[in-house]
Automatic annotation (TrEMBL):
<dbReference type="InterPro" id="IPR013078">
    <property type="entry name" value="His_Pase_superF_clade-1"/>
</dbReference>
<dbReference type="InterPro" id="IPR029033">
    <property type="entry name" value="His_PPase_superfam"/>
</dbReference>
<dbReference type="Pfam" id="PF00300">
    <property type="entry name" value="His_Phos_1"/>
</dbReference>
<protein>
    <submittedName>
        <fullName>Histidine phosphatase family protein</fullName>
    </submittedName>
</protein>
Length: 180
């Protein structure tokens, strides 16, 4: 990890788009209910450790985070965000379900609408730290692409209507070496 990126992250103004920690094997049930975690894949024990470590490493590196952090309504994303940043520091963003839906069968206009809304979200420059979004990976070649468990895409927003730049894609172990 290069020093200039580390210094830039400590100044703030970036968006950290993080995928949730490792989830249990299987699929979300067809009768998925956001209020019932039994209808969803949830964090595994390893995923819980990853989420806790993620928050610890960002705090130890003194990377400023803007609160509340945003999480998709799935139990695994909310739990990831709560373990990393504290339960009082998480706000559910219903739009982030649409990122999950990109992996399904969508008509092209619906897919494009989701990607346009994502662009709008990722163009907004955060004030007072770095914005954290805990959500889902993307299908290969779509949006921010595939993201490993607890991986983070570092985004530099250019302001509304001006797009954004993907600065880096970091695994959880990349963060460990960030300060060295």
């Amino acid at each position: 990890m290069n020093r200039s990126l580390f210094d830039a992250l400590r100044r703030g103004g970036y968006i950290f788009y993080a995928r949730h920690g490792e989830a249990t094997v299987g699929r979300d049930l067809p009768n998925l209910n956001f209020q019932n975690c039994l209808t969803q894949r949830n964090l595994s024990e390893k995923g819980r450790r990853q989420a806790t470590y993620y928050g610890e490493i960002l705090r130890s590196l003194q990377i400023p985070i803007q609160f509340p952090v945003s999480a998709s309504p799935f139990c695994r994303t909310i739990e990831t965000a709560q373990l990393a940043f504290g339960s009082g520091n998480v706000q559910v963003d219903p739009f982030l379900v649409d990122i999950y839906r990109l992996s399904g069968d969508l008509i092209s206009s619906e897919r494009q609408g989701i990607l346009n809304n994502l662009l709008f979200m990722l163009e907004r420059i955060p004030e007072g730290g770095n914005k954290v979004i805990v959500a889902h990976s993307f299908p290969e070649g779509v949006g921010l692409g595939q993201i490993p468990d607890m991986g983070t895409v570092i985004i530099s927003p250019k302001g509304q209507g001006s797009g954004f730049e993907v600065v880096s894609k970091l695994s959880l172990s990349d963060f460990s070496s960030l300060g060295s």
